[in-house]
Amino acid sequence: MAGELTTIARPYAEAVFERAKETGQLESWSRALGLLGAAATDPQVAPQIANPNVPRGRIRDLLIEVCGDALPGEVANLVRLLADNGRLAAIPEIAEWFEARREADQGVRQIQVRSAFPLGEAERQAIAEAMARRLGGQVELTVEEDPALIGGVEIRAGDLVIDDSVRGKLKQLAHALHF
Predict the structure, then answer these.
(1) Residue 3: what pLDDT?
(2) Of 12, 82, 85, 177, which residue is least crowded by CB atoms under 10 Å?
């Protein structure tokens, strides 16, 4: 989640989350947004969304039709609003932010860990415990290897980024030396 789509998606996701929580429909919205996100990233649909020559109303109707009865009325209204504002491309990002917000509300934080080398179970557990203390709740780790980091780890939890990689330190040094 980064870039212009995040800037667009986050306010929609926050508003939708608040509405879903207010009406007690978090699970329903979660399922519907997941379905919409999958439909919007479908290899046949995504190029149509990105094509400025395809009428937004046509894509809106396609998404609503494809999802059918799985879209509650308010979610269909969200699709209409996004189409009217030319924001249909943000649907997958809105779904991701909604899920992140829902999990955070339930006290579970998603943590992405990138490591230059494979992490053992003890290292994973140590990172999980440290992040749980820092963030004040349960955490779920997703770990991936990235040899481009050269050494160390990069940890992401929402907007929080802890870059303790060799690559990150080299970038900081280059920036300090104006390279």
Answers:
(1) 67
(2) 177
